[in-house]
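Q: What does the assembly look like in three dimensions?
Context provided by user:
Components: two
Sequences:
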Amino acid sequence: MGELITLAFTAIVIENVLLARFLGVCPFLGVSKKRDSAVGMGLAVIFVITLSSVVAWLLYTYILVPFKMVYMRTIIFILVIASLVQMIEMFIKKISPALYRSLGIYLPLITTNCAVLGMATLVADPSYTFLTALIFSFASAVGFLFVIYLFSTIREKIARGDVPKAFQGVPIALITAGIMAMIFSRFGVLNL
Amino acid sequence: MNNNKNEVLLNGIWKENPVLVSLLGLCSVLAISLTIENALGMGIAFSFVLIMSNVIISLIRNIVPSEIRIPVYIVVVATLVVIVEMLMAAFLPALYESLGIFIPLIVVNCIILGRAEAFASKNDVFDSFLDAIGMSLGYTIVLIVLSMVREFFASGNITIWGNLQLSLPEKVKEIFADFFTDFFVKPPSAFILLGVFIGVANIINNSLKGAKK
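A: Here is the predicted structure of the complete assembly.
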């Protein structure tokens, strides 16, 4: 149990998927201008990353490895993710139109979010069991939501500040992210 | 006509640089920019995929129905990435190890799908080929410059490939020993340096525009 908590905490804070692994930086910069859209994107990402990583782990362990097709994993994972996102979109549309209105527009963007394929590729490894793969991918996605939410609140403030013209928008956002990454990396001294 | 071709080629290097101006594919730039060796390896893998995908997509642009074009592009790109992965694992295993998951992640690199959608699906094969070369060079140059800065400020050395290494004389290194810091090896420095790079590129572009007026 303790190990699982350590795994989750490491994935959320110390080795954050955005700030330490550099996965999913495009949507991180793209949808973090407003708090609402950041939360919407974050929730959609949690949904898709957890589901697709678990599916990827199952495919890897029970199909790719026994049939010696590990070299095909990139193609298979990207197809699985694309169709999974499509299915989730249709499912949410049917079940809850309200949720669809708030999450729906982010779903198509997620197919090309490198955090999704990145996490799927990371957990597709013999060192993960079903449970650790599940916890690791879920916690990483929670880390994504956590950081993108914090970041969007900071960006809302920065947007009102007096930033030199050339640094407005993405440059100042990247520098802010760098400072956040510094802070987050210091949690590493907790030495779990 | 000739001018036009030149422009297509040169666009990617500065005016529409995929990283500094279009702000695409930042994940791999942030993650890979530790040594020039990695940057070159990533640049080669990326260029191969981009050039081949632009050419192939330009060839099939009239056959593919527009409703399913994105899945078709993704399959084309993913196939090319698998080819690169297998070649690298076979011939450059050390480099393949150090680039890690960022080789498979070329599939979802926005630059490649972006060029497929914005350029290759609308232009003929030769133009798409030139566009891909320009964009690859633009991407690789940014990656190499960023790596150079990071490695230099971390250790005072610049490793080009394997044992080929440029470094400051030991004397100079001793004097500046406190100046080199492993901060530049850690993730935060990548964010900050790339932010500064993009800002500086904006300053240069703005002043160029001002000069034209």
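Follow-up: The mean pLDDT of chain A is 88.
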